[in-house]
Amino acid sequence: MLKVYGFSRVNKMARGKTRDLRVLWALEEMGLPYEVVGMDHPQHDLDTPAYRALNPFGQIPAIDDDGVVVTESGAILLYLARKSGKLMPRDLAGEAQVLRWCVAALNTIEVPILTAWFVDLNGGKGTQGSDALHQWGDMRLKQLDGWLAGREFVATDAFTVADILMTHVLGAGTDESVVKDHPNVLAFQRRCIARPAWKKTFDAYCDRVEAA
């Protein structure tokens, strides 16, 4: 059975926001069987030689699909979409749009948002660098808001793995402050997290993952 390496314990600030949620959500949407291998972050499970053999960066998530090891949330979702034939169009043009928006979520959108959060968290809030990062992120969100005007989903007319990545990058509803000034983005986020598979995934995660 496909194994998902996800958190069993993580620091309180990160709980509910970790990237294993992206993989677990996709698996629920696809209806694929899996088991979670719980990793205790405060106990340094990610630093063990066994885990570093799977992921040299010591990060979550990772999957082991009968010997096929894949890391990085975007790569995992694309692999699962190809494996299942779900959440990804079968035609080349449609697949290209999903790839396009997966990359956009993880680069164009996530980089400024995550970097600004990290700088602020580490004492940089109110600095010139922090202000520049927030302006950069806001510019990208305005551009995304324009794209989503009149669209239900980000890449195609149907829900795809690109929507999972984009929704989670935007906070998956755990903190709407990032997107509150962008009505189309906010509506998109709320539409995606209203899906039963996300609710099932998040509830199971909260039951399983302890806050350290």
TrEMBL record:
SUPFAM superfamilies: GST C-terminal domain-like, Thioredoxin-like. InterPro entries: Glutathione-S-Trfase_C-like, Glutathione-S-Trfase_C_sf, Glutathione_S-Trfase, Glutathione_S-Trfase_N, GST_C, Thioredoxin-like_sf. Residues 91-212 form the GST C-terminal domain. GO terms for molecular function: transferase activity. Keywords: Transferase. Residues 7-88 form the GST N-terminal domain. The keyword Zinc does not apply. Coiled coil: none annotated. This is Glutathione S-transferase family protein. The lineage of its organism: Bacteria, Pseudomonadati, Myxococcota, Myxococcia, Myxococcales.
